[in-house]
Specification:
By secondary structure, this protein is an all-alpha fold. It contains eight helices and no strands.
Length: 250
Amino acid sequence: MNLNEQMGQVGVPNPDITRIMTNMSNFQGEFNLTKSGFNPQMPGHQTAHHMILRQQPRTVKQIGAGIGLPYETRLEMALMLDDHQCALTVALHQYNKHHWLTEGAEAFLSLHELLNEHREKTVKHIDMVGERVARLGGVPTAHPVTQHELSYIKHEVEGRYTVRDFIRNDLEHELKLQEMLRRTIARAETLHDFGTSEVLQEVLTDREDFGYHLYSVLEDDTLVRGMTHLIDGSGDMAGDRPMNPNTKLQ
């Protein structure tokens, strides 16, 4: 194969990246700002136990939060933040599964450790966001089924799939988390809730790193080849491909 023919291989779209771009173009992403207080249809919102109720779920204290923001601002921000901590918890569970099931020459050690780093930092992010909900006078959602219901990302279906499937699904999660975090940061700045903005900017920077890690893993170049390069003659060429300038993967 001459150089011109090899360069032609560079323009072939990566099917994993193409699939992610398609899914992201359909992502709406909405916050559950109307879901506050007890809801009989929501898991974890009913109990036969006799306990002393001090505050309903997904509400904020009228007074006494210790943060000088209006009640309406604290409520809106707390609900958005709670949706984020629910989504981060879903991401954590999916990372757990993928960490446990890594296999293959490239995945078993390197990806095993990479996903472990993502897990550990995700736990930190959940704590940061949940703490901010509490500081605004809110009640963070803790029931696992309710968390999945409120989350704007959903856990993949049960079962073992290819490592590339796992990483592609994780990248979709990260891109959706990034988009929703940016929306809340912009809204917090508008409402002068600079504390929430600062917390989420730190989380966002880490999530962008995670997305970069996963995107890089899905790229074509690899130290581990099968026999296909001997058959198709492509030489496993890798390089920059034409990208839609509007894609979130730039």
